[in-house]
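Forum > Structural Biology > Help requests

Title: Can anyone predict the 3D structure of Putative spermidine/putrescine transport system ATP-binding protein?

Hi all, first post here. I have the sequence for Putative spermidine/putrescine transport system ATP-binding protein but no way to get a structure on my laptop. I'd be grateful if someone could post the structure tokens.
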Amino acid sequence: MGMHEQPAADDGDALIRMEGVNKVFGNFTALSDVSIDVREGEFLTLLGPSGSGKSTTLMCLAGFETPTRGRILYRGEDVTRLSPEKRGLGVVFQGYALFPHMTVAENVGYPLVVRKVPKAERDANIRAMLSTVGLGGYEDRRIQGLSGGQQQRVALARALIFGPKLLLLDEPFSALDRSLRGEMQSELARIHKELGTAFVFVTHDQDEALSLSDRIAVFNKGKMEQVASPSDIYEAPASTFVAGFVGKTNLLDVTDLVAGNGNGLYRARYGDVEIICKGPEHLAHAGSGKLSVRAEEAELHASAPASADLNAIKVRLLRSVYFGGWVEALLEDSAGKLFSVRLTTTRARHTGLQDGRDYWLSWPKGTGYLVPA
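Reply #1:
Sure, ran it for you. Structure tokens for Putative spermidine/putrescine transport system ATP-binding protein below:
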């Protein structure tokens, strides 16, 4: 019996669950104790650098790899050793894996042929799915004559045509140029919302993950560092790796941590400067930590800011780089710590950036986020 045919178990809102999954290839541990739920209808992104374990996780979910240890449950039923074709999942690979000798309709309809769906029903489903992915009228086109974006849409249609409860996508936009990638991201978000199918999406692109996902699981060296909403991943990272990998941040070594009265705020010291920042409750007795200050949270001032609502550090501008709508300033404090600040071009011009000149770097008290050292 395929996974899509199995009755739902009372397992909360988890469609599929990984419990304590390890995967070892020879002497290399690709996954170490990974546990994660995929919820009904959600868009979950597996994010991490190359070799972090995100694609191996997806391959284990699909059934193309079998965990060395741990198990995979589909609606409460153990499917750890169930073959891919019996799991009833849709999969889109980086290379699309389309059949060049078939037409668009034949490619999209292939899963229905395998399932012995009658031709009339099959043809109607193909037309409907091609319309959903924006390829209405392309039924008789050959694959070789399609653009990269059109081929991507065909691959999506083929993976969704049989109504899977879960679609797995392994870096599907990596071969597309930036403008086409942005277009396909918007299309994917629309299709996900329209169909209500759960998507598990693998990428190393932080912006892609932040813009598409209901939740993001961040991977590093075979371990899952954090799984949370995009805003929590960005604004409340669980580790220095998550803080540094997702977005541009400055990590400061801070000491003398004193927790507020259950309000999530801390007093801390950076050198001889007192800092007010946010942080998790479990760091209340840590004594020290790392403070993540996002590059876009900070501002530069030609003189010491008068406001008592700002944390402020004296720095020297090493250089600034123009990116059109914004400017990135690279700075250094008296201890040799490097900082990066992103200013709008208008703000940078107003501040009057000059290499070698001293400035004050500030960010609002109560912002910045503490992570374990």
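Residues 178-195 form the longest helix (18 residues). The chain has two domains: 14-235, 248-371.
Shout if anything looks off.
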